[in-house]
Specification:
The complex is a heterodimer of chains A (164) and B (805).
Chain A: E1 5-11, E2 14-20, H1 26-33, E3 52-55, E4 58-61, E5 74-76, H2 89-96, H3 106-119, H4 125-131, H5 143-163
Parallel strand pairs in A: 1-5
Antiparallel strand pairs in A: 1-2, 3-4, 3-5
Chain B: H1 6-15, H2 27-31, E1 47-53, E2 59-65, H3 67-71, E3 75-79, H4 81-84, E4 91-93, E5 99-101, E6 107-108, E7 114-120, H5 123-132, E8 134-139, H6 146-149, E9 176-183, H7 185-194, E10 197-208, E11 217-223, E12 228-233, H8 238-249, E13 256-259, H9 275-287, E14 291-294, H10 297-303, E15 306-318, E16 324-336, E17 363-372, E18 378-380, H11 388-406, H12 410-417, E19 426-427, E20 433-434, H13 439-450, H14 452-467, E21 473-483, E22 495-496, E23 499-500, E24 503-509, E25 515-519, H15 528-540, E26 547-551, H16 568-595, E27 602-605, E28 608-611, E29 614-620, H17 621-630, E30 641-646, E31 655-665, E32 671-681, H18 688-707, E33 739-742, H19 760-778, H20 791-800
Parallel strand pairs in B: 1-14, 12-13, 15-18, 16-17, 25-26, 32-33
Antiparallel strand pairs in B: 1-7, 2-6, 2-8, 3-7, 4-5, 9-17, 10-15, 11-12, 11-14, 15-16, 19-20, 21-31, 22-23, 24-25, 24-30, 27-28, 28-29, 31-32
The chains are: A alpha+beta (164), B alpha+beta (805).
């Protein structure tokens, strides 16, 4: 058994410190050690994106990253994006526009979309389809996901304008 | 008094009942990451199971050495067939009347087959231990071609007596499973012999896989103190799983509680019973601790239920004017190593005999031969009702081939052969009674919507431009008019493992006028908690927002056969309406008592009972509910509850007209979908938003199947498509925008006229995409080319037709 490593992480604003085998995958750390079961495991090969989280400001598929690689990082998961009382604009938009069905891809989808809208606050439909291509959905055919993200973008932009 | 006054309209709208695009109640938890899927379960002392799987497709298992694995710290046990045999659990019954090895009993029949089950403290240790189990194999000749299998001396299933009949009658060869026939063979052969025109073609619908984003899994927990087993799992039919577990384990059914928590998509993959479930139950019984087993993606694609793999040889006869006179089909069905198809018992080839489609075909014959090969078992209905997708693809290809033979427009050929509106209820030559339809209206609406005639002109011009060397892109117009058969089904002819395919709903109205409804089905993304509440809201006048819908816990929900084959709305939806009507009948008596009039003097009005002719005198359902719990009403029991077990009198027959306009690059084989128009008629529409979502999703699964997705094997029986790198799931980038439309032809026998919709887009989508590819090359002589139409295969079509110069 390889020696355990000392790991420090900040997840959704909360710091964690623990010992982990170097081979422990980040998705398992989140789901099993920290009980953040929002990110899901769909393929374990980086294809489906159900495990998407934000690591130091970048969208990352946590099923193919060792927790050792995330040592010291600042992470956001779906649980950190919004709360039931104050949901993230995307969380509301996905419900409003029927952007989900079974819900399994949804946490990764919304987490990725939140980064996409930071990278490109005014995306076209085509840019959304391209920017979300790392996240697979088997239920919706994406049409309403695209619609949800477009709606969230215009809402965020309107809020920004109102603030200025 | 039924006038839609603004006041009344407001009351109707407040219910959020039938026809309302009500937002989904499920979404709050899913968008917050607070869903509760099986892999989210965690309990004290929980162990993890993992499988040692066969690298060979056909081999004898000479020995299994578990010593090194057992020596690893954290490993609790390693189970083999020898451990399960004393319990009689090394084999299990399949849904198709066959039996299947739980763990390899002397040999393996497909790559990835379960050989040993490791139980360990965590999933990493279990994975390590899997590597340490030493298995000695002796390779055997591999059969991956069903036609070869029927000729071969290699016997796959040595456990079966070759002379004895199978579950579905006599077997012709040791690798033969069954022959199933429908229709009139002699009459059909005569029609073929005498016809003006006969078109003949082999239509192959390749093997694929439902591949829900969440794989299959379970947690088994045996409480040795009270003797109760709780089994959480990704089950599309939790009640049936409870009965099966009881039958094979000997644990009495009342001591088993099966729970389907949130399910991350099913599409048929989660109907069957898998070795992982049995081994996890045994492991929990042996260890007294909860045991979790969750497949990885490769295990999911390689071992749990595949779909399709039908070789359909067809002959279609017609007059020279194009009137179809007969249809003949012989199907060779590759079932893999065990017959684990999920079909009603009397239908070993599912409802393949819906293969006359939307057409008035007076004479027809179908035969299906099931065959064992060295491939994974399964044969589930991947987002369709029991082989309906195969049937729809077959007839929609045969129509196109006939159109070529007759040199006719394929839209017109369909039109002159549609079953007419006045022919319903329609008796098909292969034994079904279609409930309702208006195909001509739907067809004309679809053709007009896409500007069909203009598209054909554009296509003709494109062909000319292509011939002149001005373009390298061809235009394909993919037409489909499909008829589904869903809502299995009437108990008189539909059962699974002897369990009649009724479904159920139980309703309790609470004293303050809200309610809970429990059903025998289970949502996997369809939004049952939203839509079933809508059915009830319209039936009992309580707002959908005040109705909780619960499914999936066998200790609390009434018995039902689950969710697959688009059966939830036709069967459980009907049970819901019927249970609602029982509530309403009792509410009527209570209202009459409260209003001091005779029962017949009150009538239901949206959310209340009013005195006929005096609508200002009424009792709301809320008032009635309270009265049910606080008044002593002579002759009426307290409380307001009802349960309905609904045995449908017939299937329902949703239909639709789909048109796909596709650009094809002759030199790269790439395609681009310019337009996709989908008209669905699912009868009464419960929630249009959800219907459209279902259509978008089903079309995207159809796109995948038609254009790239397959489970492929090499000649050694190696599965070549075990990861999402090789198994095509379209991304948002590859998926087109869809235009949805509808007509409404209610089912005459369903209490609210609804037919079910979730699977229509997969049934109709696959031929629409495939026909578009074929249509693009029709002018250059293409008749039939097998799916999936990936870039290479389309390039190959062009190359074979000499279009690369």
């Amino acid at each position: 058994m390889p020696k355990k490593m000392h790991i420090e992480l900040t997840v959704n604003g909360q710091s964690h410190e623990f010992l982990a085998e170097p081979r422990e995958l980040l998705i398992h750390t989140l789901r099993e050690r920290l009980n953040l079961t929002g990110p899901h495991i769909g393929c374990e090969t980086s294809h489906c994106g159900a495990c998407t989280v934000i690591v130091n400001g970048k969208s990352v598929k946590s099923c193919t990253m060792f927790v050792a690689q995330a040592n010291g990082a600042d992470l956001t998961t779906i649980e950190g994006l919004g709360t039931p009382d104050v949901p993230h604009v995307l969380q509301t938009a996905f419900r409003e526009h029927h952007g989900l069905q079974c819900g399994f891809c949804t946490p990764g989808m919304i987490t990725r979309a939140s980064k996409l809208l930071e990278e490109n606050p005014n995306p076209t439909e085509e840019e959304i389809r391209f920017g979300m291509a790392g996240n697979l959905c088997r239920c919706t055919g994406y049409q309403n996901i695209v619609k949800s993200i477009l709606a969230a973008a215009s809402e965020l932009n309107a809020a920004k304008e109102a603030a200025e | 008094m039924n006038d839609m006054t603004p006041e009344r309209e407001e009351r109707v709208a407040g219910l959020k009942g039938l026809g309302c695009s009500r937002k989904r109640v499920e979404d709050a938890r899913f968008t917050q990451g607070k869903g509760n899927y099986v892999d989210d379960l965690k309990m004290p002392g929980m162990l993890h199971g993992d499988f040692v799987r066969s690298p060979y497709a056909h081999a004898r298992v000479k020995s299994i050495n578990t010593e090194a694995a057992m020596a690893l710290d954290g490993v609790v046990a390693v189970l083999t067939a020898a451990d399960l045999a004393p319990l009689g659990l090394h084999w299990m019954p399949t849904l198709a009347g066959d039996k299947q090895m739980v763990l390899a009993d002397g040999k393996v029949l497909f790559q990835g087959q379960e050989v040993a089950y490791v139980i360990a403290r965590d999933r990493y240790i279990a994975a390590d231990a899997v590597e340490l189990v030493e298995v000695e194999y002796e390779e055997l000749p591999v059969l991956t071609d069903p036609f070869e299998a029927l000729k071969s001396d290699v016997v796959l299933r040595e456990d079966l007596d070759p002379a004895a009949p199978g579950a579905h009658g006599p077997r012709k060869h040791p690798n033969h499973i069954f022959t199933w026939e429908a229709g009139d063979r002699e009459a059909t052969e005569q029609v073929l012999a005498e016809a003006d025109v006969v078109a003949e073609e082999m239509v192959y619908y390749h093997r694929t896989h439902p591949c829900p984003l969440e794989t299959c899994g379970c947690v088994a927990s045996m409480d040795k103190v009270n003797g109760k087993l709780t089994l959480w799992g990704t089950f599309q039919a939790p009640h049936a799983i409870r009965t099966v577990v009881s039958l094979i384990s000997g644990i009495e059914e009342h001591n088993i509680r099966v729970i389907s928590p949130d399910i991350g998509g099913g599409f048929g993959n989660k109907v069957g019973a898998y070795a992982g479930y049995v081994c996890s139950v045994v492991a929990s019984i042996v260890t007294g601790q909860p045991v979790k087993w969750v497949e990885d993606r490769m295990e999911n694609l390689m071992t749990t239920a595949f779909a399709r793999d039908y070789w359909m040889k067809g002959k279609i006869a017609a007059t020279k004017e194009g009137k179809i006179t007969g249809l003949w089909c012989h199907t060779t069905a590759d079932h893999g190593g065990f017959d684990a198809c999920a079909d009603p018992t009397k239908f070993p080839a599912g409802f393949m005999n819906i293969c006359t489609g939307s057409y008035d075909i007076p004479t027809a014959y179908l035969a299906v031969d099931g065959v064992y090969t060295n491939k994974a078992p399964g044969g589930v209905a991947y987002r369709c009702s029991f082989r309906v997708t195969e049937a729809a693809y077959f007839i929609e290809r045969m129509i196109e081939v006939l159109a070529i033979e007759l040199n006719m427009d394929a839209a017109e050929l369909r039109r002159i052969n549609f079953i007419r509106k006045d022919q319903f209820p329609y008796q098909s030559a292969l034994g079904w009674e279609y409930d309702s339809g208006d195909y001509h209206t739907a067809w004309d609406k679809a053709l007009n919507a896409v500007g069909y005639d203009d598209l054909r002109k554009e296509q003709a011009e494109r062909i000319e431009a292509f011939k002149r060397g001005e373009t390298r892109k061809l235009l394909g117009i993919g037409l489909t008019h499909f008829t589904e058969i869903v809502g299995a089904g009437p108990v008189k002819n539909c059962d699974i493992l002897g369990l009649g395919m009724f479904d159920s709903c139980e309703i309790r109205i609470h004293p303050t006028g809200s309610a809970i409804a429990r059903l025998g089905t289970i949502s996997q993304g369809q939004g049952h908690a939203t839509t079933f509440a809508q059915i009830l809201a319209s039936e009992i006048g309580i707002p959908a927002d005040s109705i909780t819908v619960e499914e999936g816990d066998t200790d609390t929900a009434p018995y039902g056969l689950g969710t697959y084959g688009s059966r939830s709305t036709p069967v459980a939806g009907a049970a819901t309406a019927m249970a609602g009507r029982k509530i309403r009948a009792k509410a009527q008596m209570i209202a009459a008592y409260l209003l001091e009039v005779h029962d017949d003097d009150v009538e239901f009005d949206v959310d209340r009972f009013v005195i006929k002719g005096a609508p200002e005198r009424f009792k709301t359902m809320k008032e009635i509910a309270f009265a049910a719990y606080n008044q002593a009403i002579p002759g009426i029991e307290p409380g307001l509850e009802a349960v309905s077990y609904y045995d449908p009198p017939n299937m329902t027959y949703p239909f639709g007209a789909y048109i796909c306009v596709m650009e094809i690059d002759v030199d790269t084989g790439e395609h681009q979908i310019r337009q996709f128009y989908a008209l669905d008629d699912c009868g009464t529409r419960i929630n249009p938003m959800i219907i459209e979502g279902q259509v978008h999703g089903g079309l995207t699964e159809a796109l995948a199947i038609a254009m790239g997705q397959e489970i492929a094997y090499d000649e050694m029986g190696n599965c070549k498509t075990g990861t999402l790198m090789d198994f095509f799931l379209p991304t948002a980038w590859e998926t087109p925008h869809y235009t949805t439309d509808h007509t409404v032809t209610p089912s005459p026998h369903h209490p609210i006229g609804a037919k079910g919709v979730g699977e229509s887009p997969n049934v109709g989508g696959v031929p629409a995409f495939s026909n578009a590819v074929h249509d693009a090359f029709r002018a250059f002589g293409l008749r039939q080319s097998h799916m999936p139409h990936d870039h290479w295969r389309i390039w190959k079509i062009a190359d074979d037709l000499g279009l690369h110069g």
